[in-house]
Amino acid sequence: MRDLPRSRDLLALARELLLQELLPLLPRERERDAHLIATTLAMAGREQADDGWQEEIAGALENLYGDRGENLFARFAADLRNGAFETSPSRIAAARAILWRLTIAKLREGNPHFLAANGLRNADGRDE
Amino acid sequence: MAKATSGPVDRQRALAGFLAIASGAENVALSRIALLSGGAIQENWAIDAEFEGGQLAGAQRLVLRCDASTGVPSSLGRVEEFAVLQAAFQVGVTVPEALFVCDDPSVLGKPFFVMRRIAGSALGRPITLDPALEAARPALAERLGRELARLQTIRPPRTDLAFLPPDDGPLALIAQFRAYLDRHPNPRPVLEWALRWAETHLPGRRPTVLCHRDFRTGNYLLEGSRLTAILDWEFAGWGDPDEDIGWFCCKGWRFGRLDREAGGIADRVHFYRGYENESGRQLDRERIRFWEVMANLRWAVIALQQSDRFLLGGTRSLSTAITGRRATECELELLLLLDFIGAAAYA
C-alpha cells in the first residue's frame, strides 16, 4: 500500500548523494560527520529490510523455556546472570546458540563489515 | 570570595596571571590559545606563551587540560590527574611534564592543569595503517610494553596518590557492570553470560599496581615512528597488573588491523616481550584472557553509556548516540573469546 520507491531504496540513494556529491564539498573537519551520517543511513536501510531475526530469536526462546511467556528476553538475560542453564548441557548449548544468532543478526544490521573482518561473512550460511 | 571570570579576555588575563605566579615570572604573554581536537571527556588547549623570567623563562609551548562540559563517570578530577602524571613522569614513563595545577575557580571557573606540549599525533588509524610505519611497529609495541612495566613500578601506599580508591578487584567491577545493566532499558544477554563467566573464573590476586586504564592505541603520541608521550590519564587507579595488558590488546582498539592483536600495531609477542623484559615478570596468557574479557565488558558498558547520553540525557549528538551500537562488537568478541565450540561453528 505504501508508495514507491521504498524508503530503503531512498535511503540508499540519499547515502550515495551524501558520499559521492556532498562529501567532496565539505571541509576536512566535517568529513567524519558525513561518514557517520552515511553509516546511519546504511544501518537504517538494513534494519528496514528486516529478515525476521527477532521472531526467530523469540521462537528459540520459547523452545528453550517451553512456553510463550512474556518478556522471555529479559528472563533469558537474568537466567544467564544466575547460571541457570549450567547444570544442563543441552540447555546451555541452546542458550549459546541463541547468543550467537542474536549477536550475528544485530551485527548484520549494525556493522556487517565487522562480522566479515572476524571471518563471519557466511555466518548462518548467508552472505552479507 | 573571588568571582569566577567570565569573558575570554578576562580568562586569558587570569590565566596569564596564574602562570606568572606559578612559574615565578615577572610577566607572561599568551600569543595563541586553540582548542585541540579529540577531547570528548576533557578539553585540551594549546597555549603558546612568552615567560619573562622565572622557571620557564622564554617561549613555551604548553597544553592546558580541563573538564569538557560533559564527563563520563569514574574519571579523575584534573588535580588528581596532575598528581598521577607527575608520578608517572618520575618513574620514567614517557609523558608530558606536568607543570602547574590550579583548583581555584576564580581563574578559569573550573580546575585545570598545565603541561608541556609534545609533538606528535595520536590518531589511531594512521598509526595502525600508514605503510610508512610498517617496519617500526614491532619495536613500538615492545617499547609500549616497557612503558607499561615502568608505570607498574608505582605501587600503593603512596601519599601523593592517597586520593585513589583501593583496588577492590574484578568482583567489584563485575558488580558495577551488573548495576549498570540493571538500569539499562534493553537486556544484554551476551554481557550477562560473559559476566557470569568472569565471576566464576576469577584469577588469583597479584600485587596491586597503578593502572592507566585507557592504555591503548589512540592514547599515545607518535612523531614519525617515535613514541613521544602517553596521554589521557583520567581513568588511572590501583588495579591488577594484567588489566592494562588486556585493555591494550582488546579488539576495540586495533583500528582496522584486527589481525595485529597488540593494539593493531604488532603481534602480541613484541608487546609481551617488552613488558616481560622490563618487569622481569612472565605473563600468564590465561590471566590476560580474563582481563581481555573484562576489557570487552568495560568497553561495551562505556559504549552503552555514551548512547545513554542521547537516550536518557537528551544530548543531540549523532556521534554519541551511535557509539552504543559498538557494544555488539564487544559481544561478538566475548563470544569468540569464551565459546570455542560456537566460534568453530560460525567462524
Question: What kind of oligomer do you see?
Answer: heterodimer
Task: Please state the average pLDDT score of chain B.
Answer: 93
Beta-strand residue fraction of chain B: 15-25%
Shape of chain A: elongated
For the termini of chain A, the CA-CA separation is 29 Å
- How many domains make up the 3D coordinates of chain A? 2
Structural class of chain A: mainly alpha
Output the number of helix runs of chain B.
Answer: 13
- Nearest-integer average pLDDT of chain A: 92
pLDDT < 50 runs, ≥5 residues of chain B? none
The tally of strands of chain A reads 0
User: What kind of sheet is the major sheet of chain B?
Assistant: 5 strands, antiparallel
How many helices of chain A? The count is 6
Low-confidence segments of chain A, given as residue ranges, are none
Strand order across the biggest sheet of chain B? 1-2-3-5-4
Q: Ends of chain B: how far apart? A: 65 Å
Please name the CATH topology of the largest domain in chain B: Aminoglycoside 3'-phosphotransferase, Chain: A, domain 2
- The name of the CATH superfamily of the largest domain in chain B reads Aminoglycoside phosphotransferase (APH), C-terminal lobe
Helical content class of chain B: 40-55%
What fraction, in percent, of the residue positions of chain A are helical? 55-70%
What Rg of chain B is obtained from the alpha carbons, in whole angstroms? 21 Å
Keywords:
A: mainly alpha, 2 domains, 6 helices, B: 347 residues, alpha+beta, Phosphorylase Kinase, domain 1, Aminoglycoside 3'-phosphotransferase, Chain: A, domain 2, 13 helices, 9 strands, globular
Structure, described:
- The complex is a heterodimer of chains A (128) and B (347).
- With 128 residues, chain A is mostly helical.
- Helices cover 68% and strands 0% of the residues of chain A.
- The model of chain A has no long low-confidence stretch (mean pLDDT 92).
- Chain B has 347 residues and is an alpha+beta fold.
- Chain B folds into two domains: 8-116, Phosphorylase Kinase, domain 1 (2-Layer Sandwich); 124-346, Aminoglycoside 3'-phosphotransferase, Chain: A, domain 2.
- Helix content of chain B is 44%, strand content 16%.
- Chain B has 13 helices and nine strands.
- The chains are: A mainly alpha (128), B alpha+beta (347).
- The A-B interface holds A 29, 32-33, 36-37, 39-40, 43, 73-74, 76-78, 80-83, 95-100, 102-104, 106-107, 110-111, 114-115, 117-120, 123-124 and B 37, 178, 181, 187-190, 192-193, 195-196, 200, 258, 318-319, 322, 325-326, 328-329, 331-332, 335-336, 339, 341-342, 345-347.
